[in-house]
## 1
Amino acid sequence: MSRALLPDDRARRFEQVFAEVYEPLRRHAQRRIDASLAQDVVAETLLVLWRRLDQVPEGSELPWCYGVARRCLANARRSNRRGLRLIERVAGQADTTTAVLDPSSGADDSHITEALARLSVDDQEILQLWAWEGLEPRDIAVVLGVSANAVSIRLHRAKRRLRARLDNGKELLATGHEGFGREEDTQ
Amino acid sequence: MNDDELRNLLRVVDPVRSSLPQGAADEAAAQRLLEEIMQTSIETPDVRDAPRPAHRSRRRGRSLAGLAAAAAAVAAIAVGVVVNDDDKDQQVAASFALPDAGVISSCIAFDVNLLAQMPTAFKGTVTSVTDSEVGLTVDRWYVAEGERADVVTLQVAAGNTSASLDGTTFVQGETYLVTATEGMVNSCGFSGLATPELESAFASAFPG
């Protein structure tokens, strides 16, 4: 843990970290909650960053912020049930998906969304941090508050389950019949 | 399918994949947020997720003050210590409730003196995790009310979908330091993964 920052140093460091994390945090929140709530989550996270700047590990500022955002997102979802994650809306009701899907993506992509949405919440979370935020296991460890080793194991298993889901999805497209039950029930 | 292919597939369905980069209006909003935040005090009591600055905000959406977490003390629910006489290994078992992750609460600042007053404190390693409970074997007891259990079960609160504490889920094989009061596990940093910092705090709080 670093020692307490002097006011000028604190302001300078905060401005620096703010500039680095603001846009990634914005995208992180927009992926996971309704746009109207995403900016609140970003503001809350940055408030915590300002207050706890002394505790933020150098070199891990962004994963640390994602860790804070994670709790803010959980709170925001609970207090506003309309704030479904975009991925839930995409995987769920067909009539709301057209607004959020990339217009250039084809109908084939629905099997990816389906496969992802049918994994456990923990699997989805770790895969999203890996693929969308592009985090390495040691950074995911900071976000989730667990060891890098635990992340590596969980990530490996989540990838395996996703691959199995995707293969099942292809079977479904090909034959119209699904071969397996929910992957997480058989773990 | 290798990792790169899998990652690329996932990126195809990234919800913000085709979102436009920030325009001038967004950058101006970011600058305003930066300035507002830097005017807030850092001296107020520790709040878990959303601190309470005193001033008003011109931001769209809720004011910074409105983002503050609702205050709630760490509630206690009485859960008795269960001794399982039928267990063929003659193991003593205890059960505690995990706090409801749906209750937004503000935290008191972590304090070793408060930690030392906890009536129940132990170190345990997770042997099983499900969506409804966490099983641990106790590695050592620091302080216990009544009999010192060999195994502990932590019950997930009703309506919660996974076993977690302070936003982090329990992981099989990991070791945790746990305190409990009146049958409920204490959050806000008074229980957690057995990091060197927390180990040191527990060693200070419970000497000998």
## 2
Amino acid sequence: MVVLLAVILPGLFPMATVDAQTPEKPQLFVTGKVSDSNHKPLVGVRVMIRGEKKGTITNNSGMYKLLIPGKRKEYIVEFKSIGMRSLTRTITGPTTLNVTMIDEVYESEEVIVTGVFNKPKESFTGAAVKISKEQLEKSSNRNILQAISNVDPSFVIVPSNDYGSNPNRLPEIRIRGFSAIPSTDDIDDLKGGQRANLVTPLFILDGFEISLQQMMDLNKDEVESITILKDASSTAMYGSRGANGIVVITSKKPQKGKLKFNYSLNVNPEIPDLSSYHLLNAAEKLELEKAVGLYEKRGDLKEDLILKQIYREKKERVLAGVNTDWLSIPVQVGLGSSHYLGVNGGDEKFRYSLGASYNAIEGAMKGAKRHTLNLNLRLLYITEKFSFNNSVSLSQTESSDGNYGAFSEYAKMNPYYEPYDKNGSIVKYFETVNNHSFAKVQNPLYRTSIGNFNTQKVDNIINNLSVTYKPTSFLNAVANFSFGKVFEKSDFFLSPKDFEYDNTSNILEKGLRDYTGREGINWSFSGTVNYYKNWGKHTVTAGVNYSLYSSTHNLWGISVKGFTGESRNSIYNGHSYKDERPRGSHSKSNTIGVAGSINYVYDNRVFFDGSYRTDGSSSFGKDSRWAPFWSVGFGWNVSNEPFMKHIRKYVPYLRFRYSYGSSGSKNFSPWESVGTYSIETGRLYTGNIVSYMTALENPNLKWQTTFQHNGGLEISLFDGWVSISANAYHKLTKDAITDTSLRLSSGWEHYKGNYGDILNQGYDIDCSVFLYQNREKDASFNLRLGTSHNKNKMVKLSQYMKDRMAQRMASDFERYNLRYVYEEGHSVDAIFAVRTYGIDPSTGKVIYRYKDDSQSFLYDINQRVPIGDRLPKIDMRISTSFNYKRLSGYAGFSLKLGGYTNNDTYKTKVENAILTENVDHRILEHRWRKPGDETIFYGLHEVNNFITDRYIQQENSLVCHNISISYDCTHKWIKKIGLEGLYLNGSIGNVFYISTIKQERGLSYPYAIEPSFGLSCTF
Amino acid sequence: MKTARYLIVLLLEVVMISSCTGFLNIIPEDKIEAEKLFSQPEGYWYALNGVYYKMIQEELYRPVSNSLTAHTLENLIETWSPSKLSVQGKLSKHTYKTSDVDALLGKYFLSYYNLICNLNRILDYIEAKDVLKGNEKNLIKGETLGLRCFLQFDLIRIFGPIPTKIEGGKKYLPYPIKATDKPHLYLGFEEYMNALARDLDEAIFLTQNSDPITKYSLEQLNQPGSIDEIKEIEYYNRNCKLNHYALIALRARVALWKGDRENARKFAMKLIPLQGDAIECIKPEWKLGTTQSLGNVNNTERNNNTLKEEILFGLDLPLFNYENHWESELEGRIFMNKEKVDALYPNKEDKDFRKLLFSSIGNTIYASSNKFWNNQNLQVPLIRLAELYLIMAETSSIREANIYYKAFCESRSKAYQKLTEENRVDILLQEYRKEFIGEGQTFFANKRCGITRPYDCKETYGIAQYVLPIPTRENNI
């Protein structure tokens, strides 16, 4: 919100000075100069007084002189020009009136872009954050999603220690908390299954919905601004799609001017960050193995001798200097780069732009990559009353995870293993001793030599056409037609030589090639009519919108087995289907929406906002196919009140606002509300086709509705040196769609029903301070502080889900695996575990703490309690930036406090370490060895994998997410060599990570430090 | 020009709005909307065959471990020798209050009501839509209604009371007549049985002229396409469906359960009338099996261990992996102590061919039934002619009863012992025991008569043993 303010305030006051022109001495004329945003005079602008037929036009130097007729209290002067946003100014008599007109295609700074109705920022009652392209560029040099999150802490990317800096991982994103109940299949899943997708916000690019993946591959150079809509008053107009929050992306529009080229180059290395790993070296590891008695067998002299011999052989090798650094084997400094070439030109009426970008990400894991090629063409044609805007974009992304497998495989390897034999070829297995018997350990490097691959390719095409009709200054109509098609292909080959087939003797079963294709077609149409009217102190903005949205997905895949060699890997070289037949699915969903919005402002002091939308969707039950969403909002610009006049110097801006309303989200399959039958190939009864009910439909099934209160204020202090924006919200999701129990005698255990309430409450505060500012010297230094907090609570859960949780409690799996727990009264992100009193010094065993605080040596899953929430209580962004003439710099930090995490390193590499694999160095010091030892870890011979609070730790962390510096080299000599501008920049992402928890970071994929060097030029 | 463009946009909108309802009716390709399925006659057949398919695929009637009829119902009457700690072991000791038993019973309960829901959906659409006509309508409706009765009858036999010990005001089970998410009304025993009899009578009436089994031979009906007048394969394989005669046999069962011996006899008599002293089945191709008809019991190619010529209604199970569920003493398989077989047939000279339907498991102390031995055309019997003979022997005058019982004994190659009023129930229950191994009817017969110490059982039986509890998940919502 500060962002918004930072933009609004400087923008606001220059204009206020124009308004505040006071008549000097009586004149019969109004005169002045009209210029554009580059201070160049505008020629041929029509200037007239409203209500009068005669007007004038500006001359070659942009000057005008207009006669003021008669004697009125007020005159409204209108300025009009093709391709420029019309302006009106109120005067009371003859005066000098200089104005600046803004290019029509630019979004006005005073508007909140919602993608449906653009709302005047001055009278907006909702909570929205606007992020400019400059802010995006500064805050991250890589992924656009990370960049958003670095600016606004309420745009939460749920961290995943497992995936590290994997460029191909789609992150889990939330705005204002988690507000859905996962399906029964997902609650049992260790990682929560599809849970993340349920709350992914809606991404709207120029009015058209795009997927999270398309968003991730979006080229930052094409983005003009991003607006995040959070509250009901800004999301209600998205109806059944709006409840998870909306990210509206506005792309750059072609600018007028002569043909101009723009080229930028960035070199983006990825440096693996392995500083969190503290593994044992070869000598330490071997000694540990000996100490725990891996190489002795009492009572069996023969075996004992053999084991001792093995130890001696290993010892010799270690003494000879074998100490393989396994961590360094699968990683690299990935040398990625990105290029962008833009061509732009045109006049007032016809403009074009063509952009091409190529972004090659080379991951820190060898072979991990993501290459995206983007092409887009935009055409703009403007006439007096119409404007046509068409953009077409093509993109192709090729990605691969490489064939090195998981990073964790390498971290497990004992340093006394050597990956290559004397001849330099890769060893397939290492020998080890486990429980006094011999075992084989797979060399993960072997997989890189046998032809395995796993690649994905995505092709996208999106076309957006928008036609605007503007018959008068107070009315306009916009029609938008968008079409998008995505084709996704993933291709996977597992060589017949893979470890997987070691125990398979049948050649026809070895090897696997799997091909999956997914095709998605989306189109949408929307028509909007906007009305604007201003009389006296009253201003009304109103709009109606009608939209259609259709989405179709087809998926098919085949899996073929039986390959004779890694080179003969084409799908037709396979012997037979792995499963009975090809797989596939199809889904389609259509939505119709009708929306209306009204905004009323009185004297720029108080304002009212209301919107309504009704959505019809094919996904909903017959009996509730249409559902309404609405919002109301009020606001008060206190700073415009007369009584503020005296303190306006100290408090130039103060505004309160409140909104309440509803929005929905649908997260279930379209057929769950309609009675459907399945007909499956190959299922027959006495040769007859059979068909049976797939589920009991719920004809009353409807979208879950989120009711949200949002209160906010914006304040600017000390002549705008400090500005603060704050929001507090209460977001109750009612009728959450969940599996609802039925009596067994209905024939069905459960069906999808609207049964479940989830509450999210929180606040976000954004504060921006200019520490130093000097306009003359062109120098500034500022500090920004963003804070967000969210508290989640499951208010109501269906009996069926409760039963499922109870069933889970009874299972053995639950005792050893940390899964998401859904319980009324607790957060959906709460970590549940049995508490402990620590290690008994006399026995080295764990003492459990039951719910009633009693002690026991016995583990009981029913004694588990919520320990803490996975997400931080307070999530902060601290950033500072400076600007001095041509040089500017930025440093951004994230501070996360109060989140809990399961310290996996403690659990798997120290306490329950598998001693035949490499382990954390803490195992040497902190484990219990003899009675009297007061340690945090139990004895070396104990194994106890139960879920307890002993591994669950509170994490407070400070991350430096980006430091960047840029320099504008546009000197005179630059122009001499034919360039118009030249800019250099350097930055470094993920600079450091300081945490109160010592654990290995980036388990299956390491984290990377991300420096970047770039230059861009225009010519 | 501009106006034209504006008009096009406007027109587009109008077209969109007018096709609104169609726009919102979307069904994925791999599924079919009920509304669409039932808009043509084939759909009703598909849905009805779907119920048969599920009956044999799921663990109600499929002769697999932990299935209802072949495993659970037999353990309830101590047929097999399950390991004590397994769920089946608990069932054989009649300890129903454990969570694993509750879960298993819940599974059966749900399966039954799921099938009933599927049948009710067909009936709902027959009424709501006028797609089916004439004989086709009568046949489908009759068969669907009848099949619902079949399932509802099994439910009351399992979860309902001992018919001789009814609690007057007690509501026992729901009797759903509509596919809906609303809770179904629970009925008392009388109401339930009356509804069952009424629906079954209607089913019999509807199928009497429409079922091809009343006009064509089984031979013809088992060769799809062989009858000139009937092209659709749906009308064939009538003995794999609940046909008109099977419905009559079911009606006899139902009457007997209610204690209505008169009607039980009447309906059974319709199928196997007495001509003088000879018994002739109404469909002559159905006759009691003999040692000869058994074929080679241990030859998968030629065995006929389920006695197809006796099956009035049996489920078609063409591909069945017998070994995975029987034929071994491994945990989860269905087997018994050899002593139990010896107890059933103590006399080594006994020629009773049913003795041959047991086979020893290797050199162990166990034996298993090979009734469902791999057979390319396995048909799992649900109603057999033998049961009708036993019903006649139980409900007729002692003279007639002996005629039926004698014929039965002859077919089984066993020594005939004359029935008297005093001994006939005991003797007949012994026959149930020998006859219906793996078919679940023995438990029902004993429950029906309220026998405290069934033949060849060690436990004492009463309400606590015979009446299975309603699964907790039914009421815990």
## 3
Amino acid sequence: MKMTEQERLQWMQRRPRESLFWAIVHALGSLKMAVFLMLVLLVMSAFGAVYESWSNNRLAQAHVYKAPWFLVWIVALAVNLVAVTLTRWPWQRKHTAFIVTHYGIVVILAGAFVGMIWGKEGFVTLQVGDSTRQLNLKEKVLFVQGLGQSGFFVVPFDAEVAGVGPKRPWSIDLRSGGMRVSVVDYRKDLVLRERLLEDFLQGDGPGVEIQLISQAMEGKVPMVMVLNNWEQEIKRDVGGLMSVCLARKLPLRDVGTPTAERVPVREIWMVFEKAQHSPLVHTEDPYRSGWWVWLERVEGLPVLKLRNAAGLEEEFRVADLQNGTVKLADGVTHITLRNYWRNLVLEEGEPTEGPPSGYNPAALFWLETVVLPPEAKQPQVLVSVVSDSHIVFEASKDGVVTATGQLQEGGTADLGWGSWSLQLVSAAQRGVVVFEPTTAESANASAITEAEAVSGIQVVLQAAGMSSEPTWVATGSSARVMLGGQLPVTIGYGHRIHRLPFSVELKAFDVPRDEGTDTPANFISQLVFTDLRTGESVQDVAKMNHPACYPPQWWRRFVGNVYKFSQAGWDPQNLQKSTLQVLYDPGWMLKWVGSLMLCTGIFLMFYQKPHGRTTQSRCETPPVQRQQASAAMVLQTVHFSSNTHYNSTAYSTPQGNGAKST
Amino acid sequence: MKKFVKIFAASLALGQALAKTPTEVLYEVEGLIVQEGGRKKPFVTFAQEELTLLHGKASWKDPQTQEHWSAVYLFLDIWVSPDRWVDRPLVLLEYEQLKAECGLDLRKRYFSYNELIAAQRLWQIVEESNRLRKRDQNAKITALQQKALETAKKIEVLNGLLSGDAYRVVPHPEGASLTWGTLAQLPVWYGSKGSEVLAKAKKFLSAVQQGNPTAEQVVALKEELKRLRPEFFPSEIVVQCELAYVRWHPFRLAWICLGIGFATMVVCRLLQPPWVYRIGLLVCILAFTLLVWGVLSRIIIAGRAPVTNMYETVVWLALSVVVFALAFALRHQSGVHFWVSFPVAMVALLLADTFPVVLNPSIEPLVAVLRSNFWLTVHVMTIVTSYSAFSVSMALAHVLLWKQALSSDRGGTKSLTKYVVESMQLGVWLLGTGIVLGGVWANYSWGRFWDWDPKETFSLVALLGYLVTLHGRRFGFWKDVGVATGSILSFQLVLFAWYGVNFILASGLHSYGFGSGNDVWFYVFVAAELTYVTVTAILARFRAHQPKMS
């Protein structure tokens, strides 16, 4: 079908009137449509970016960029792009750049859609030595287990995107038993509270859950301690105030028994009358005497004054000290004057008596005493488990036992120091520590300030007019909910799990630093992939800007038929843990080809010699065609099967490992 | 006992007044190598960067004597007698709310170490925000907390200086990338050899204290230190290159050159029009040379492409604006490209030179995600180059609008429109390619092509702005005034993608570019541009509808 340029132009003008197909093509491919689509897309994207800064990336993705209306808009744009190229049909050589550019965008969009539908994206968090074949997909789900016959029930649900809160509960009816699960709250500031459980089969050694209660400070310090099978005792520090020790056996001593020996201390003091507040003190012993000494002039005579922490005060005339060692009233402290200068000067670095005209009194003396080591002074509680419901305890302070006795579950005992008392919540002979999510308000504030916050949902199970207690479920874990006297139902919330066709193991994780700083220079995960059918293993390294790929064949990498593991997150507190972002993207090659088409297309369009920007070429097209032609050019506007960067969020949600739940 | 008395004796010896250190000594001290901030740098860079961080400027003025202290002089003095500096106002703190909260004097801009250490409320805020960050790394913190953290960082830096820990001049004997030590490490790491060097260093430092140091002492000390582990020191060429860069400020020379050039062109236009083009050409080549010198220096010093922070992109913009001006002017034999490009490049360089707090000029190692990546370099360079093409187009559009709206001389609008479109097209190609390259890079390093990150999104938004402008013109929706308006409006989107996303939205993955900026000026600029466009476009339209007068 060879036609002249004249015939072609005439046909192009005529065809929308003659054929419905061409009428639609010309309408969809009109420039007005293109400019309109682009302008609206511009506003929508800009709004999305601003919305993201108000909320966060996930919400912006869910409510703007990946919302159905946005996708529809992009499809409309793709249709416009295809239609506009058809309006130039039959194509000529001069249209090459135009077509390449516009189809470049269409190809990229196609790649994005392929990736969105058939691709997989998620993350794995691994400890060194761990191996897994579970991929946490980005999508969040709610799952319910233990519903009689039907067993397992999974529904896509994202509490944050759904905007669940006390005023906006979300519920779903389950297929069996007329049950209904309601999510009544979602919070990001939950804390995991330790609880003690007795487990005769798999528990560790003896354990206690106690609370230290201070009436004066109106505070409670909850504490759970469990001895491992090989441990004789464990010790916990309570904010530097006191320590609590759980031991297998306790030496039960009477109140008033000393708990530690006093140790000798010798200090060398240099005191100045003109600088009473800046003495120079030196000691080689690990502790300080607790005395404060200064030099004063009383009735024209130099006097050494001393005061200790207990408020005891003494004073000696320097003249009286010249005779040798003097014992203080506390009975254990001695001072020995070594030297006294009326006018101290430095001569060649040595302190010397200066000319009588000057006046700068100073004294050098030794102070010897015995002190209680600070650790013995600190309040301490020792507990030991006797049975699964009671314990014995001993409290001590300032080196003396202050209280001792037995405690039943629920009982409280005074510790003999101020307003503090000890309450036994529960005891276990074979205990395990479990973590239970709870709100920061209901947990004790002082105990959780340092803990990492987790997110979670509060669920209520309803059936036949009954409701369960509201139960918190941390993201990435599950909880058992009881409804009346029925069997418990397990409700979980977290990422949807995808089973990989292979397993991946983290062999080593390394974070080299910039020279002389703590700034990470790279993150290097050594990975081992094992094919589950053949059992063959392959090693690869995921570094910053260098993902590891599996299966290893090069051509798979080229066409995108490969799982890519990119370094995505780390935990400064735990250098054995690495988070990898995993992507399987079958649309990968389309995106690349499209990108290449786009770049060359635009370049050719503006700089191609014969039909470039020159005004002549534009005049070739009749005015009508000009009105009708092209459309959107570059459009990256898609869903390039995206991923959040899991740099930190991944760590704020424990993935169920380590956090058993009740 | 004896040791104790010695310590006591030394404590009495402090606190004597210092004599001034001679200039030639300071000149030699500039080249002393210090390890800081993840690289080894000359003392002058170290001092200027740290002082800029603390003080907002690279020099310090004594409020009592009105005497100016260069960074090197100041840092040498802190090294020798730190006690003198604990009460001197060195730390810049401008945020009123924080000052009020901490009970600091609202009228003062600079505070001393002791003043800030004593501000208990400040440390409470710091502790609260650290706790917040620890619990949730993404927790949004208030501006007050942000400023408190910044101030705490400054105090930490100052603490390092006052304690002497920051003066790490002794190479670690076991590895090039291990942490260097202070002078006190010399005998520990190098035994008797180290003790000898330490003695020399001490001699120099006490000479500084007594006011009689000599340049020879510094040269000898530098040599001795280097002789310990010469292979761990940066090569002499790099050091000299950096010293020249720091001493001469090629970017400052460039904006001065552009400014003088522009002024000369104004004068010449009044006297000798044909000379304007020739002067423009000369100035352009000169500025280009200076900028290339500066950029090359940074490449040599850092060993990477200089397009990784706001400062470097601004400088790169200036360089490519100058290149485009040269290319377009030569191609069209037009002076207008010089007229519009010089102010653009000059403003960019001036901003980079005057706001070190917002546009940080220090050369730092890259954050891990940007490291050793070919695609990154190409991606950022392409995008920033496209910004400069757009800014040339924007500047030309201003002239075009002016001519259409107000000027009595309306000739040459056709070629002006052509120039506006030409640089816009170049920008579209570069930006489109840059975005795609960004996708390629992101796919490679983050494992995804496009994810609606704010930076990605806004670069697309800016591109869409230009595409709408170009498509509309191509098919006659609008002509010269419309194109110029589109160019200026779209450039506001570019600015938002460039500055706004990092400083106003401050969210997203491109977080290595974040900082604290001064948003007010950004809004003022955008408002001024919008006013200009509205007024001139209305006037131009009004004129177009008036009957032609003879």
## 4
Amino acid sequence: MSESIINALLGGALIGLSASFVLLFSGRVAGISNILGGLISKTPPAVSWRSSFLLGLLAGGAVLHFTIPKVLQDPINSSTGVLVIAGILVGFGTQMSHGCTSGHGVCGLSRLSKRSLAATLAFMITGAASATALAIITGVNS
Amino acid sequence: MKNNLVSFLCGLLFAIGLGISGMTDANKVFNFLNFTGDWDPSLAFVMVGAIGIHLISFRLITQRNSPILSPAFILPVRKDVDRPLLGGAVIFGLGWGLGGFCPGPAIVSAAGLSLKPVLFTLSMVAGMALYRLSRRGQNQETMQSIDTCG
């Protein structure tokens, strides 16, 4: 357990550091749902900035895949059908809410934003609710 | 050009952070959110680590007149808590708990070309597009609002 906590803190620190560099150099909020979602608007703003960051995410994923692949794990309790629904919900919800775990959770809370606090509490609670419901339905806890 | 290179490197660093933290392990996420099972609370410390760094640096950095490679800071201006904010967060949370991925980890994991994260990411893009389509004809968001999040 303690190794998990150390990894969580370390990984979290790198995330916070990345968000800080994004702010320092580009002056922007590192909210992934908005970086991607902004590309899907009628007149997408800052296309090359967004694309570069997303390419960086993908490159990082490739690095992880080839160096420490055990950190990338597929959800064993979610069927492909459930995943499609889940993906649509995440896409739709993050646009409606104007942020996600990085935009609201990391950047918003760091700004002491009441909006982000409300959003973060909401998605943490419903995240716990739906994961628990899925566990009960698929009989994972038994 | 420099801005794009820096942005790419920030994305790379962000992805490594997500990987090390455990956020790209969808089963770990599931065991964190499902507190009735074999509860693993360690992912709570991801936000501790991230906010620990960013809370302080945000204050310091925004004391500058401008960012280093951009003419101005583009930050959210709204302070009100409204129904779309909460409703959207509820919907997002439901999806996160069902799928074990939120946007960043989904994209990072998709790079490994495993079916599940790729499928999730494509569905996520579809969900984003669906929201945009549902907004057509309503009050258009300002460019400021589209361009930043919070």
